[in-house]
């Protein structure tokens, strides 16, 4: 999609980043509908205050995808995250979210390409991320983009465990 602009996030983007995170997270995890467990997590985790803290953290870097001056996707890198698999010392892509209406238009690839360019320029040899194990289209996407499946971790919420696959990409 040629009308998409990938750029570094600005402070004034924070409220829109929060809303994109809320929407994509619910769309991804609440596959059977919304229940209190999901609602409480989204309301408490994806807040303006939390996003401001991420914005002010020098270890976090955020890219946004913009279409007609609207944020339609984002990617966040955490340079200080520790990988849950041995031997991986790369930064983590903590978020790669694209609004459903804009999926399958190359936006995720554009965000990944820009993140990879930034990481290569800073001398990094790759990155890792986790993806919800039932999100088969996302897993296929990462495999198609050259990631390898390096194992799994569990995301625990309200006493329930949700398996996530660890995907690693080396340059």
Can you tell me about this structure?
It is a single chain. With 171 residues, the protein is of the alpha+beta class. The protein has a single domain, classed as 3-Layer(aba) Sandwich (Aminopeptidase). The protein is built from 5 helices and 7 strands. Strands 1-2-3-4 form a 4-stranded antiparallel β-sheet, with helices on both faces. The chain has a 3-stranded antiparallel β-sheet with strand order 5-7-6. Strand 6 and strand 7 (160-170) form a beta hairpin. Helix 1 crosses helix 3 (48-56). The longest helix has 16 residues, at 14-29.
Give a short synopsis of this structure.
The chain has helices at 14-29, 36-45, 48-56, 107-121, 136-144, and strands at residues 4-8, 60-67, 70-78, 92-98, 126-132, 148-157, 160-170.
What's the SSE blueprint?
Blueprint: E1 4-8, H1 14-29, H2 36-45, H3 48-56, E2 60-67, E3 70-78, E4 92-98, H4 107-121, E5 126-132, H5 136-144, E6 148-157, E7 160-170
Antiparallel strand pairs: 1-2, 2-3, 3-4, 5-7, 6-7
Helix pairs in contact: 1-2, 1-3
